[in-house]
Structure formats: structure tokens, C-alpha cells
Amino acid sequence: MFESTTPSQSDPASPSGSPSKSVWVPTRPELTEDDKENVLRRAAECVLSAIVGQDKPISEGQSPAVPAVPVWGVFVSLKSGQQLRACCGHIEDEVLLPTALERAAHVAATWDLRFPAIQPAELSFLDLEVWILWNRQRIEAQGESRVKSIEIGKHGVQVVKGQQRGLLLPGVAVEHQFDARQFLDQVCRKAGLPARAWLDNATELFTFEGFALRRPLARLLPENVLASLPSGPGMADVLRLAEFARQNLLAMSEGATPSFYTTAAFDGPVQGIILTLKRGDDKEPESSRKVMEASRVFPQGSLPLQATMMDLLQALLAGLKGQQIGSEAFRQLRMGMTVLTNPRLVGTATDCALDNVNPRRQALCAVLDRYWAVRYAPQEDAKTLLQQTLSRMRLPGATTARIFALSIFSTEGEVEASNLPRPVPGPAVRPPAVAGRFYPAHANAIDEFLTSAHSPTAERQIWSGAMVPHAGWKFSGRLAVRVWEQIQIPSNVIIVAPKHQALGCDWAVAPHETWALPGLSLKSNAQLARACAENVPYFELDAAAHAIEHAIEVQLPIIARLAPASRVVGVVMRDGPYPALRGAAKKFAEFLQALPELPLLVISTDMSHYETESKARELDRLAIEAIKSCDPERLWKTCHEHNISMCGIVPAVFVMETLKELGRLETCHVVGYTTSAESSGDSSRVVGYLGALFA
């Protein structure tokens, strides 16, 4: 992981001095061995103070004396093994070491928003690294010759272009074995610029020098300090709270007022609470005894224990009412309670340090974006526990999930919970959701539009795939019609679209049998939909994800007019890393290859969003060139390197990879391109639209 910058005056990507200002510190700061020790100890003291609010010396007497020597900046990193936990810095043209050190340590401990908040319990397991920087120099060379100004192992690099700035420390190039060109590419990406932006003479580049001091925090913080760090609840508290929760839920189910707080048990910040209602029959397997569950887990921060517990009781009460479980039946259920505390980041799904994980006392939690999964099984070893936890993370990109070890106090022998969306079967008929907004709400108006958009010269041909826009018909409907009118639409069509809504599973196949539309309907192919979900990794049959999604629906009236006997399967895809897309596409292609007839694969996507007209056309030209090359990986890299906000990049890459696997991605015919400005007249903030056909 690359070192961070901070969103403040201490931001190394936002130096307080002008980039062209003369350098105050051209020479290496001279520090004795005692000075270096004091630097590390003072940094540790500042980290401790920032995390636990304990602003006092970590040893008897005064805080370690740090020499007031001039520096250009200081970076402070905290690491858990090889995993970066935080890294921020403070740079300034005229700053003394003590000031820069204290500011860098504080922001590293509290402001690196790439990572969850550091918890006191982690301090014993973290390593401290302090980089002292000097001799910032502008690279006067231009273009390709700038490479010669970089000496790997000696120089760090800073890039400045307008408001976009980035910095990488000297150790980054060594750690990742970058050459000078790669180092410059990476610092540009760090600044949010295209990788080759350093070739542009308008991009300012600077080198600087530095050295690092490293030490485990446990060797810098005395044992008595570590032992006195804030603690959480104990098992006695959890037992009391479980009974307290049960009595409250019973009262609420009978219409009585609950007790909102008890002084008889701990109340403070925790990282997770799981409440379960189970049948008390010990003859049943543990897995089948659970009636319902309510949980909230937040290892990146904290939750107020008793207030969160009351919120979860409201969720359980709603569940009791929904299942029509009355107070008498409730009395036969047992309340289980689990509390999670002291989170410690132990790595990722593929690179995890499990040596200090104790499954008897700790649960593992996998976190990916907004999703989490928790598993506690004291009879298992740490490796098995990790595998079991990850098995719940059925998500594209799950290999990048962060893994936390958390102390657990539970009334249950085993615990398993997650907030992953559960597929919703849904009704047989999917009602229209965006009629009257994205396209007309009445059948006559739909017919009028489609008639006006019809091209009498359109010649239908067999195509393996297509790309159509999905904005409101006012903006992109005529282009969409032009695309559909050139296709011999087969009996089955699979439309793959981006998932614009948060509802439901991330990669979801519509389970419905029929798409209802104003004045008409269009059949789906429920059997084909089910088979897609069964054969493609991460696909789920889920109605919730399709309930209010527009990207597929806007295509349906057009298909219903041109090919009313065709059946349409809808798929929405949210996010996913390229390896997951490629793997899923390979399985999808294998599945499609076995069908008697290949369906038409359609990408529903708009192009760049909310740029000026000229900027949108410039960016979309790059993406269109990649699409015309029939190279999905090139399209992926182009969109990410140039920050092109193509909303359907995931569906586009997935479908193109599938067609490539099928041997049906040899040519691309661009039907047309337009922007919203042609309809709205507003060129200051537009969306681009592309129509294309693949064979």
C-alpha cells in the first residue's frame, strides 16, 4: 500500500509554500542515536495521545526531547506486519522537526480515511515508522528526460498539477521494485492524474530525500501504559444485557414501555452487537434453531452498546410481528447476545497474519465496502475460521476484503452473521418503475415516440452483441431505437446493465416471468434466468435489485414493439475488480456455449457524466476507441486511467469478455454518438451516449 496524504494543512500534497518557492533545507538533518530514539518515542507518545486521548509522557519525567532541526517534512506510518494501517505527513518549506513530527503523528493516528479508525487494543501489534524529509528540488528537465532526475532508493517524488497533488516516499519505489518510469506513473496515479501525466511539461515534479526510523510500538510504549488502555465489557455484562434485552423485547411485544438503560452493565463504545432469537430445543441442530437475528457490526469505528441494542430490539420486534409471533410464543424463545470489541486489522483475504488470532477468544470479520461477515467458532483453528468467514462473502472482489480479529463475548457457542443482501424471489410480474419519467406513461405516447424515431432505411442483421444508452428517451431514446432497429432480435435477449440503486444484491438476475409495461407486457425467460444465476459466480436471483432500476426497463418498450415474441432476461451489476469480471465472463461463456441458441447480449450504458460538452467528447472518444478495438481490458484501463465516468463499465467489460470467450468479438460498428446537450441545449454539464454493435 502506498503512503497517504492528509486532508489538511498537514497534507503533503498541499504544501503551505508555493511549489516554486526556494528550498530551506538542502542538507540532511544530523541526528545522534539518542535523537533518533527520542524521535520515535515522541511519535509513539503522540500516536497514543491521539488514539486514547491520553496526553501525558509515556515514561517518568518530561516528554522525549526532539532536536529543533530544520526539515522539509515528516511522515508517520503505522503498520500491522506488512499491512499498512495508516500513513500521513506534514510538509512545509520552513518547519522544525518537533512541530512536523507531532503534526504528522497526530494525523496518521486519526485522519487516514483510507483505513478504519485505529483502536487502542491494536497498539501492541503495530509497528511505527517515521520518515524525515529534506532537500525538495524541482525537476527542471522536461518530457522523457525527467526520468534521469530520479535516483531509486534516494529520491521520493512529488507531483503538482493544478489542484491535484501526490507524493510517494523514497521507500515506496524500493519496496515495490519500481524503476524511475514506474515510480513517476504511480505518483501521478496517486494524484488522480493519468499515469503518463509526468510527460506533460505543465505537470510540476519535485524530488526530495529522506530516511526512515522504525520500531514496534510495544517497544516504545511501557507495559504499564499498554495494560492501562481502555477496555470494554466482560462476559458478566453480556449475560446481564442479554436478559435485559429479553425483558425489554417481551414488554415491547405486549405494548408496554421498555427500560432504555441499565446501570447494572457496561455501556460504552463497541464494534459489534448481534442479537438472536432461538428455539430452546437442544435436540435440534444449532443452525436450525435460529428464528431471527438483528445485528450491527462496525470494526472501522464504534457503536454505543446499549443504544444500539435498543435499535436492534426494534428490528426484532418488527420481525416478531411479521412472523405473527405473539408474546406467549416469544416466551418459548431464548435471547442470545454477542458483543465484539477491540478490532485489530490482520490483513486481507489473500494476505492475512493469523499467528496472533485466538479462535477461542476472537471472532474474524471480513469487510468489503459496506458489507461485512462475522464468524466465531472456538473449536476451529484460525485458518479454518478465516475460510469459513470468507465463504459468507459471496461478492466480486472478496479477495480484497479486509480481515479484522475482534474480541468476542457471547452467550452462544458459535456465531455467524453478515449484512450481505439476501436474494428476494419477488412476484412473477415486475411492474413498471420509471414509466412517466424515463419514457411515456401511456401506450399511445410510447407508440408515437417509437414511430417518430423509426428509420425506414434500417436494415436488420445478425449481431452477437450491442451497446445501447439508457437515459430518458428525451435524451437518448432515438439513438437506442436506431441500434435496436439494426438487429435481428433472437428469441432470447440478455440485457446487462449497471446497478444504479443500493437495493438488493450487487450482481443480480431478474427472477420475474413477465415485464409489465404501460398498455403491454414482455415475457422474460425465468428458466434461463435461473440457469444464469446457478452457473455464473456471484450472480443471484434477486427481485429487489430490479425493483426500481431503469437501465433495463427503458429498453423494453422498444423490444416489445420490434420483437414482441422475444424474451428478455435482465442482469444488473454494481462493482467488481477486473479479475472477478474475467472469471465470471469465462463461466458465463461456457454456460451460453451449451445452449441450443445463443441469446443476444446487450450492454446498457451511458458514457461520461457531467463534464462540459467538449470534455465529455474528448473523454468518450478515448473510451470509444477502446470499444472499437474489441479489447475489454483496454476499455477498463482507459476508463480508470482517465477517470471516465462511464456508468456501465462493469457490464461492458463483462459482456465484451464473454463475447471474446465465445469468439464473437471481432468487429465493432458504431451506430452513433450524442450527448444530452443536443436535447437540453446545456453544454456546461452533459452526459454522453453511444450506440454500437458487435460481431
Write down the Rg.
29 Å
CATH class of the largest domain: Alpha Beta
CATH architecture of the largest domain: 3-Layer(aba) Sandwich
- Tell me the fraction of residues in β-strands, as a range: 25-35%
Number of strands: 28
Number of domains: 3
Helix content: 25-40%
> What's the mean pLDDT score?
91
Number of helices: 19
CATH superfamily membership of the largest domain, which one?
LigB-like
Question: N- to C-terminal separation?
Answer: 41 Å
Largest sheet composition: 9 strands, mixed
Outline type: flat
Predict the CATH topology of the largest domain: Protocatechuate 4,5-dioxygenase, Chain B
Ranges where pLDDT stays below 50 over 5 or more residues in a row are 1-23
Please outline the helices and strands:
Blueprint: H1 33-52, E1 70-80, E2 83-96, H2 97-110, E3 127-138, E4 155-161, E5 164-168, H3 170-176, H4 180-190, E6 204-216, H5 223-227, H6 235-253, E7 269-270, E8 272-279, H7 286-289, E9 290-297, E10 303-304, H8 305-322, H9 327-330, E11 333-348, E12 351-352, E13 362-368, E14 371-376, H10 382-391, E15 402-410, E16 415-418, E17 429-430, H11 443-453, E18 465-468, H12 473-484, E19 492-498, E20 507-509, E21 514-517, E22 520-523, H13 526-535, E23 540-541, H14 556-562, E24 567-573, H15 578-593, E25 600-604, E26 609-611, H16 613-628, H17 632-641, H18 649-661, E27 668-675, H19 677-680, E28 686-694
Parallel strand pairs: 17-21, 18-25, 19-24, 19-25, 20-23
Antiparallel strand pairs: 1-2, 1-3, 3-6, 4-5, 4-6, 7-10, 8-9, 8-11, 11-12, 11-15, 13-14, 13-15, 14-16, 18-28, 20-24, 21-22, 26-28, 27-28
